Every structure is written in structure tokens, then in C-alpha cells.
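Here we describe the complex-level prediction in full. Unlike the single-chain runs in Section 2.1, the two entities below were treated as one system.
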Amino acid sequence: MTSDIMIPFYQALTEDVTALSAPQDSLQDTRREALERFAAAGLPTLKTEAWRFTNIQRFLKEYPYEFSNTPATTTANVADEAAIAGLDSYRIVLVNGHLQASLSNLPEGKGIHIGAMSASTDAPGFSKWFNQQKHLSTESLANLNTALFADGLFIELQANVVIDKPIHLVHVYTSDRHAFVQPRHLWILHKNAAATIIESTVHPKQEAVAFANSVTEVVVLENAELWHYNVQQGAENFRNVNTTAAQQGADSRYHHFSFTLPNTPLTRNNLSVILKGSNTETNLKGLYLATGSQHVDNHTFMDHLQPNCNSNEHYKGVLLDTANAVFTGRIHVHQDAQKTNAFQQNNNMLLGDKANINSQPQLEIYADDVKCSHGFTAGQFDEEAMFYLRARGIGEESAKALLVNAFSHDVTDEIAVPALQDYIQGQIEAIMNN
Amino acid sequence: MINSNEIIDDIANKEYEFGFTTDIEMDIAPPGLNEDIIRFISAKKNEPEWLLEWRLKGFQAFKKLKFPNWQHFELPELDLQSLSYYAAPKKKKQLNSLDEVDPELLATFEKLGIPLNEQKALTGVAVDAVFDSVSVATTFKGKLKEMGVIFCSFGEAVQEYPDLVKKYLGTVVPHSDNVFAALNSAVFSDGSFVYIPKGVRCPMELSTYFRINAQNTGQFERTLIVADDNSYVSYLEGCTAPMRDENQLHAAVVEIVALDHAEVKYSTVQNWYPGDKDGKGGIYNFVTKRGICKGERSKISWTQVETGSAITWKYPSVILQGDHSEGEFYSVAVVRNKQIADTGTKIHHIGKGTRSRIISKGISAGHGDNSYRGLVSVGPRAENARNFTQCDSLLIGNQCGSHTFPYIESRNKTAMIEHEATTSKIGEDQIFYLNARGIDTEKAVALIVNGYVKEVLNQLPMEFAVEAQKLLSITLEGSVG
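The structure predicted for the assembly as a whole is:
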């Protein structure tokens, strides 16, 4: 117990764990162990290296959060707020992590298992892959999630299953009291399977604040391919700590995109990819557009364990007003991971007078036959480009929007779903014109 | 109840215990670190009261500080109580001719191209009349004095220029800065003091090599360089010759102050004993180096070539306080066998229009572990600050490690910061190209490595650069193939 807010926290937790674990006996031990680890380590402080620039305790103390695990429901109107124009998809709606079947359209077919986590504990993939990534157990908030999660979405695609349309996963957070919610997801793609998953977040405008601490485990096995987009539309009364732990088998491809848009005061994205097979491809792309006093923290970890893998990471940020951004990218190349190509870039545009950025691009390399690099820049609008546009009769605001759009191109251009690409570009324009 | 008289008695007795007159004859203080030893050192050096107090403050800070745990290596256990903190400068054993010197050492000198007479001076052979280092040094000293440049040992400066020392000591690296700096503040043995008066451009490179009394300054060296308005100085530390030393821990402190329009260039070549193949017995080089550009348009530039020591752990830093001041850091760090280097720089942009440039080249071979760790911070007042950082790593062999941990913090939107880092190995095609032209692999590697570090070596004074180049080739000998 390292901090004063821990004690009431912990008491609430122990009660909750007891209540939760009764119907799900198989997880009782896992939950208790995770809770013990959480209690031993405590919440991260500013002295915890990985949380040096994000004062998580301050955000947790902001409101008297309650652990809310009771299933809630929402309406079609609310879920529609996340709609992406022109997107043909299977929509799945989760309310505080609980699947709402009445609003969802689940893809069906041989070898497709999509359903609530709570109803999937017997699935063969569940016991094999649930909470199996070692480093998850070293992260305080992930332990808390493991101990306390109520539900989430389980996806298992058997070998050779290809989902024909993107799955649009709409997370709705709603509660009449300030809630601390712990959604937990596990997605498994077996050999040669392929899918596209687009996540969106909706938080209906109401007084209560929701703090989501979600964990998604992604397993992409041999020669499988997953396109994973996380669109974080913001809301004033929403706080988001989002952990994605992915692992890849041989010849697999994993493409992860995160788009952090304005309004949510706190966004922390923990993203880790462990390469367990060789000849893989990994793309991690991020775009954060922060306004007001928003705090956006992207924390990524690429673990190269096997030879002949390629990883490409590119995070771009536009910071307005007094927005605060943090980027930590660690690439670890183990001794066996020869012929690794690992690249990382973090570019920032500081447009607000008091905006600031803290960046730590790190390389840790133990193999010699590798090509690795990282780069960082922080700067402003290019004056010459600005002048060029202004000289051609383009107003200052439009010119800025145009330049920000161009700056984001490295990320937006890689989006493989045209409707989503239009949507993100539209969002950038709308924000810049405001 | 202890009354005040008793306390006074107590203190009086204590001082008596270490009476100045008797102990002054002693050459080595008993092992152990405590207040009495610090008083003893201070008394030995006949220091004024304020300096003793400053040392004691350093000791208090040292007791409170903890050893860090964030570094990328395991800190070996240091038994600071078993060290002796004072030893009178020892006379080196005089040898009659070079025949008595370790042939391996001579072979190294040969490769470095060090002139015969210098070889003699370095190994402690009596120097003949042609090359009299003392007279060379005296001529230089006279010239410096004429221009008003003060260049002397720290102890001398405390006696002769106490006001200058008092004004600047600890202003850049405070006595409580970090655990090793605090230890140094408490027990520093000696070091160098440099003062360049207003408007003077120091006519020669100041090197510890030419300073008499410079030998054996011990493991807790302290250097203070002050460059007054519109002055310039280039300072060299260390030499390419392999240095053996019985002290395992070296915790030195270097402070630089640059006033308006002043420029200080500080170059280091470090080749301390790295230990045997398993890394046993090498030197721990834990140094705190920091400069402050106090005046406007001042400049501080660090250049370092680090090839020795079992562990090199230092971050020469620059605080850019004056408007339009400039900081530079050029580094080459080579590790082989079980050597470890965790080095880099910190640049704090505080003033307007401040600029900094960081070029770091790491080379890892054998089982060596090389880390670049750096901080570039831009404060809210640092309008139009500019930074460029490049840190490259070269890996030779698949047992070594190379890491980069930069920290970048920007609080000003007008700042332009660029950082790039790459890691790669020597291309087989490059080696093949050179092999095909009759250059053997070892020489080819030396050639490629020298090309790779050229940007840094170019910053060194010419003679130094030539030696450093040869040093690199020797260091990497046997690590390929």
C-alpha cells in the first residue's frame, strides 16, 4: 500500500472480487493473484518510470469513483453516435464492457466464435490465451483489470476464417454515478485467419464521469492478419486507460492504429507487441490531436524475440492550447532476433502557447545484424508552406487545417478502410476549423 | 543531561584526537569515511574555514542521498568505508631506461605514435636534457601568467585565489547534486582551477599533461573552469596512453562557468584500465560534469572519447541560461570485453534563442554494453530554442548490446527539436570492398570505424585527434573475425 487512496480502494476491491468470482470459479485464483500483485505494487506514482509524466493518482482522486460491474443498457440512438458514414460493417455494441445483443449484429459462420467473455470461459482458446502475457502481470492497472473485470468481448476465429466486413466495436460508457469500469477483451486469430476491427467510444453527455481501465489481449497466430483501429472520440466526462497486449506468431501481420481526438481529459494507451514467431510484420500508427488541457500518453513496447521481423512505428501529434502529450516507445531486440528491421518515429506539432511534449524513444538492442532507428521532432508550422498557401488566397485557418491534414497524412494514408479514412480526415478538419 | 560545557569539551577533545601537528606527518589517512577524516583532509591542505564547512555540508548530503538504480547496468557494491580518503602524492618509481618498462605498454605506445621522450615521461623513466617537461611547462606558465590566465592546482587556487574559488565552487554542481558529487565535495583531493580573465583568448590548449603536480590527483578530482566575459579557452583532460591506477572508484567533478560571450571547449580522452577479459579489476569512472552558459552568447562544448574503464557512467551537461548561448556535446564511447558505458548528456534550454547540438557515436564489441542516455529540455522562456541530436550505434559481434534512452521535454511551442538514432553493424559489402583492395579485415574495420566517428574526432585538437584515431583501432583489435 503505497498511497493514501489505496486503502479504501483495496477494501472495495476485495469485496468486489469475492462477489465476482463466485459464478466464475475457473478464474477465482487468477483474480486473487492479480489482486495480490496489485496490492503489493500499489498504484503507479510519478516516481514509477513508466508513469513519470502521467499523474494517474490525481485523475483517480478527481471523483469518488465506484466500481460498477452491473450490466447497463443503452439505446440505438446513443450507439449511432459512433456511426462512421459509408462504413459497411458488423456492429457490436458493448455497454460498460457488457455485450448488448439487441443492438449488435454478430458475424456468423463456421469457425467464428464471437460472444461475451463471461459466456466464453469454456472456449478452447480462452483457457489457453487468457492472461498469458507475462508483462501484463507487471502492470498495476492491468492487474486491477484482471482481478475485477466483469465482461468484454471474446473473439476466436478458427484457421482460415476470413471475416468479409470490418467489425465495428462500439464501446458505450454510461452510468448515473461516477464509475470505474474494467472491460476485458480477448481476440484470437488462428492460422491464416483475417479480420478488421474498428473500435469506437461513445460516452453520452451526462453528469457522471466514467473512468475506463480496459485491457485487450490480441493473439495473431501463424500467417493470420489483423487490422486493428482504435478511434478514441473524446468526451469531457470520460477518462481512458487502454491497454492492448498483442502477440504474433510466425508470418503474421498486425496493424494497430490509434486516433486520439479532443475532449477526454486523460488518455493513456499502453500498447505492447511480442513477436513470438519469425517473418512477421507489425505496423503501429498513432495520431493524437489534443486540445484544451488534455493529457495524452502513448506508451508502446515492441519486443523482437525472433529473427527476420519487421516493425514500423509512427506516432504523430498535434497539440493545441495547453495540451500535454507523452510518448514512450521502446524497441527491444533480443540476441536471437537477427535481421530485424525496427523503425520508430514520433513527430509533434506544438501549436498551443502552453502545449508541451515529453518524449522517450528508446532502443535496447542485443543483436548485431539489425537495422533499427528512431526519430523525434517537435516544431511548428513551416513558415514557407504557410506563406505559400496564404499568398494563394487561402485564409489562415484553412491553411492551418490543410497543413495539419498534410502532417497527419503519414498515418491517415495507411488506413485501409476508405470510409474510416474519410471519417478521420473529416474529424481533423472539423477540429482545426473550430 | 549534557550541558553545553560538556559538548564544548567533547568537541575540543575530538580535535585533539586528530591533532594537526602529529598527523601532518602521515602519508595515508586510515580507511573510513567520517567527519574527522574530512577535517583531517581539510587541515592537511591548510584550507580556510568556509571550505571545510562546505565539505561537511557535502558529507551531510552524501549521508542522505541514495545510490541510484535507474542506470542500465548493475551497480557493483562499493565499500566506501574501506577506502582511504587521503594519500600524499607519491613519487613514481624512477626507472633508468625504457628496457625496464613493460614491453606490452611499449608496444601500445608504438602504435599510438607517442614520441620516445614522451614515452619516457609517461612511464616514469628519468627524462634527459633534450626533453625537459619541467622547463616546457615553465615556459608555458610564464606566458599564461603574462596574459593573466590562472591555471593551477585546486589546492593552490584555494590558497592564492580564495575569493574566486569561493565565488564559483559548487555553483554548477551543488554539494548535494548526486551521491557521487556529494562524496566528491566532502573528500575531494585536488584538481585543477582555471580562470580566464575578461577579453583574453587563451593562446594554447590547457592540458593537465603540462601541469606539474598534476600527477596523482587521486580518485576524487575536482576541476573548476571560469571563463570571464569575451574569453576563450580549450581544455584537455586525460591522455591516450593506457592509465593504470590502484583506485577502483573515480568520482570526479568538473564545473564550467562561461560568462558573456565566453567560450569553453573541454576535451576528454579517457583510457583507464578496463579490467581483464571478464571485466575484473577495471576502473569505475563515475564523473559529474556540468557547465553553465551564464552569460549571453556564451558557448560550452564537450568532446569525449571514452575507450577505457570497466564502467563509464557520466553525462557532461550544459545549462543554457544566457540568451542565445550554445551547448555542444560530441562523444565516442567504445566498449569491448565486459565493459559498460552509460553516458550521454543533458542540455537545459532556459534562455531565449539557445542552441544545442548532440552527436554521440557508440561502438559495442565483445560482451560490451553501451547506452546513450540524454535529456533535452526546453523551458517555457526559451523562445526559438533549437536542438539537433544524433546518436548512432555500431555493433560488432552478436554478444554485445547497444541502447538509446533519450528524454525530450519541450515546454515552448517555438522550439525546434530533432532527434535521430540508428543502430547497425558494419556492412559486409563495405568490408568486402576493402578486402578486395588488399586491405585486411582488421584494418578495414579500423578504417570504417574511423570514418564513422570522424564527426566527433574532428572536434578534438589536431594532435589529440591523431592519437585518438589510433587508440580506437587498438581498442578494437581482435574484436573482429
